[in-house]
Amino acid sequence: MTGIRHLPEAPTGRRSLAPGAGIDAHRHDTHQIVYACRGVLSVTTDAGTWVAPANRAIWVPAGTVHEHRAHGDTDVRLVGLTDNPLGLDRPAVLAVGPLLRELIVAYTGTPASGGGRHSDGGERGRLLGVLLDQLKRAPEQPLHLPTARDPRLAAVCAALHRDPADNSTLARLAARSGTSDRTLARLFRAELGMSFPQWRTQLRLHHALLLLADDVPVTAVAHRCGWASASAFIDVFGRAFGYTPGRAFTL
């Protein structure tokens, strides 16, 4: 990432982003919760990409160089924090229940008293206190596509990013990259922290969210992301996100 901007404090507030729009590489000295209450938002760092629909939020710790990208017409809510209530020093995707959602919407819709500072008392301070209590209870979600470092693994990942519907076996993909399936399987575990089938499912879910944000029909999304049928896609999507693809942007 080049041209990195430095913001002393992570901003708090609301931003509307058109499809494909984004916020270029930057970092701030305070932490931030990034939530899209409409559309899908992705956050990318050198370590990979995190993606979140409307029942997920992305935690960005202080000092992390990152970019935002909107998929679909996106209503982004930003909560800047001087404290680290999660104790996480890496980005993460968190589940957002109905109460946490309403707290984020309410907090980002009221005037801030100074960027990421949240020491103000009164109603706003109490609102933030409840928000932080709910945030601590929010479970982390596996919606991260880590970046491959090994050139052989990176080549395979890039090919599947270009065509997530490719159903090639690991052995066939290994042959294309000039290595063995055993080596690739080891690299997936060592570098990406998951098996090849787990990573491919994450990739396909990631692409599915982006296509749904662009109003692609569910059946077409299933086909373009490599599921054998729309029902198979709906089942996997529902187990991952807790709702059906047809409800993805009506929460």
Structural write-up:
This protein is of the alpha+beta class. The chain folds into two domains: 5-141, Regulatory protein AraC (Jelly Rolls, Sandwich), CATH 2.60.120; 148-247, Homeodomain-like (Arc Repressor Mutant, subunit A, Orthogonal Bundle). It contains eight helices and ten strands. Strands 1, 2, 3, 4, 5, 6, 7, 8, 9 and 10 form a ten-stranded mixed sheet that branches. Helix 4 (170-176) crosses helix 5. The longest helix is centred in the last third of the chain and has 18 residues, at 196-213. It is globular, with a radius of gyration of 19 Å.
- Count of separate DSSP helical elements: 8
Number of domains: 2
The proportion of residues forming helix, as a percent range, comes to 25-40%
- Please write the string of helix (H) and strand (E) elements: EEEEEEEEHHEEHHHHHH
Distance between the termini: 34 Å
Task: Count the E strands.
Answer: 10
Query: What does the largest sheet look like?
Result: 10 strands, mixed
Broad CATH class of the largest domain: Mainly Beta
* Reported CATH architecture of the largest domain: Sandwich
Overall pLDDT: 88
Morphology call: globular
Give the full name of the CATH homologous superfamily of the largest domain: Regulatory protein AraC
Spans of at least 5 consecutive residues with low confidence: 113-119
Q: Which strand-content bin applies to the residues?
A: 25-35%
The CATH topology of the largest domain is given as Jelly Rolls
**By helix and strand content, what is the structural category?**
alpha+beta
What Rg do the Cα atoms give? 19 Å
